[in-house]
Prior knowledge:
Blueprint: H1 8-16, H2 25-33, E1 38-41, H3 48-58, E2 62-66, H4 70-83, E3 90-93, H5 99-110, E4 116-119, H6 121-124, H7 127-134, E5 138-143, H8 163-170, E6 175-179, H9 184-193, E7 200-203, E8 211-217, H10 221-231, E9 236-240, H11 244-256, E10 261-264, H12 270-281, E11 287-290, E12 303-308, H13 315-322, E13 332-338, H14 340-350, H15 355-373, H16 378-385, H17 400-403, E14 408-410, H18 412-424, H19 431-439, H20 444-448, H21 465-477, E15 481-484, E16 490-493, H22 495-502, E17 508-510, H23 535-552, H24 556-559, H25 562-571, H26 576-579, H27 587-593, H28 595-607, H29 625-636, H30 641-647, H31 652-664, H32 672-676, H33 681-693, H34 699-705, H35 712-727
Parallel strand pairs: 1-6, 1-7, 2-4, 2-5, 3-4, 5-6, 8-13, 9-11, 9-12, 10-11, 12-13
Antiparallel strand pairs: 14-17, 15-16
Helix pairs in contact: 2-3, 14-15, 18-19, 19-21, 23-25, 23-28, 31-35, 34-35
Amino acid sequence: MIAVDQTPKQALEQFFGFSAFKGDQEPIVKNVLAGRNTFVIMPTGGGKSLCYQLPALMSAGTAIVVSPLIALMKNQVDALRSFSTEDGVAHFLNSSLTRNESLKVKQDITEGRTKLLYVAPESLTKKENIEFLADINISFFGIDEAHCISEWGHDFRPEYRRLRTIFDEIKRVPVIALTATATQKVQEDILKNLDIPDADVFKASFNRPNLYYEVRPKKNVESDIIRFVKQHEGKSGIIYCLSRKKVEEIAETLVVNGIKALPYHAGMDAGQRADHQDQFLMEKVDVIVATIAFGMGIDKPDVRFVIHHDIPKSLESYYQETGRAGRDDGEGKCIAFYSYKDIEKLEKFLQGKPVAEQEIGKQLLQDTMGYAETSMCRRKFLLHYFGEEYDDSKCTNMCDNCLNPRESYDGTKDLKLVLTAVKESKERHRAKFICQLLVGSEGSEMKTYKGSAMKCYGSGKEEDERYWLAVVRQTIVAGFLKKDIETYGILGLTDLGKKFLKKPWEVRLVKERDHGQDEPSALNGAGSRGGAADEQLMKMLKELRQKEASKHKLAPYVLFQDPSLEEMTIRYPVDLEELTQITGVGSGKAQKYGKPFIELIARYVEENDIERSEDVVVRSVVNKSGLKVHIIQNIDRKLPLDSIARAKGLTVNDLLTEIERIVMSGTRVDISYHIDGALDPELQDEVMDFLREAETDSLDDLVEEFDGDLSEEDARLMRIRFLSEVAN
Length: 728
């Protein structure tokens, strides 16, 4: 055990074997030893745990550390015991222990062996535990993951807000609160709730210079992920998904493509989760595909990439999850896939919650969307969010926007319009209202606040709302506007903004990327934004498609959609099996129309001496056919579509998307029994005739043509029927 008269540095070397502290660790340790309330904001990998572990080992009594996850407690306790000859030096007390195990923990504490006791907040509410802790010598209380206290934090836990009351029931001793992510609002909330306004605050820089940040449009995500992982073969990585179902799907897809991967989510039993986590830590697998249930306190220093299949609910979540990459200061790549549809989906999840919670959730989502869509340095945007200014000239190409900079332009006029609108509307509105004011919108909020009477109304109507939102974002980061978190994002002028309005000077802004626009649907080739990898081959494939379509007397899109052709220019499939791995091409379609296409590609590959990489041949998961079989069998039985959807936990909208995929991959389905009950036979014939002559399969064109007679759902059903009967 550590001698009482040792210095922190001597104790550090004796117990942990380190010869020097990192960053602010030493002053923090001394502050806790001096009995001062302490608040630590330190990025993941900065060494937060040591800030309370070392003073606990050096103090008389036992430190009580509140921790949110059982897995996290176990990791910390195991790590501490590995440094000590005494197993009783650290314990945890939570619902996973048997009665005898709990008694053993309490005995070790009573006999003075235990220096650190990790507890779940729920365990602290038990009367027997409160009574026991009130009788022992407590050195201090520690709160790990302290952002859980704040409703503005990304992982709010109501039981965390009761900690101060429970601590007071036990006894009043110093407190150390620690978190890896906290905006100014969250920091204030933590200090207020814990009643430690006098706490000494230690805030390390949020900048992780070794991390590379990139946002990609969400298109062909699985192919992109597999290609990326194979390019980083043998390296450890984490892939985050929002749903358990998606976790399972991605993990299976990785495995069938020869990648060692395992899933991890709260729906698995504790034993299986622990096993998968251990296999990752022991490097038996390279990749963990997980929900946010994975990662807190995972002390694996060499995670080389963190991929977000879905954009998270807040920038705090994103920052903490990406922070698990490159903790050893080595390579760390952070790739996020983004579609505005994901933001809309997350907004829907907020419905039904209390109004205040919805407002907070929407504000957090707006900031996340801003990060995903921005064209400025991502590191600058991220650090500004956490209240830290960053000189983006130091980014050294460590984000996609600095690596491939967008064109800048003289934004002086735009900036003046935005600041004038904020000033004229009396600094009482959020970004959305300001943007609507500039474009001259006629919404209900505009009428309520008499926006059309303001001089600035419609002063920016040459551009759309998204354009102005991008300008507002850059204006906030540049310090001309401030956003009031307390009032859910109301904009106000800063001193710099007021100074600019009095005497403007030239300000450069950056043209935004188009990441936020909806991705094209699998059935809308005309909307494709992906672009071909090989323009020459794309031109040849389009010419061939036109020729083959004329031969079959069909519209070209019926054979293969543009996204399918684009993928062919990336993967160069030269046989029918490889062709079926292309999105939107199943075995039926490949057999029916594929031969001339693979022959053309094979000739092109040979003539141009193209080296085809095995890496890009992405194999689909065989098990995915389970849903396909379920749908086809039940359509054959003529079951109502809503019943088929309900049986698999899908909405009818989701089911139609699945049926579209089935039909597009060349399999026939007969949903006429459903359509006959919904649409007049004469109308059906008219729609089929229109689709035969249409240049594209655009739903908008279809709904517009039959204005009032055809809903979007009806249009989708008819398009499925047409493609099934004509294309397959």
